[in-house]
Amino acid sequence: MRIKKLILPMLMLILLPEGFLRSQVLVESTAAIVGQEMVLLSSIEDRVY
To answer: Which residue segment(s) compose the domain that 40 sits in?
Structure first.
């Protein structure tokens, strides 16, 4: 699952022509991935403790 999450943003970066849009999408997709990881970690911690 994580590999797919990383490949999709990379494909989007390649397809987008504008450099600014590339950086914008990279920031947003990275933030989304990090956010999902944090949610998963917090939910796992809630179950453990």
So the answer is: 20-49
Alpha carbons 6 and 34: distance in angstroms, whole number:
11
User: Is position 8 within any domain?
Assistant: no
In the chain, how many domains are there? 1
Pick the residue with more confidence: 1 or 32? 32
- Give a yes or no: residue 48 inside a domain: yes
Q: pLDDT of 5-42, one tens digit each?
A: 777 777 766 666 666 666 777 788 888 888 888 888 88
Distance between the two ends of the chain, CA-based, in angstroms?
26
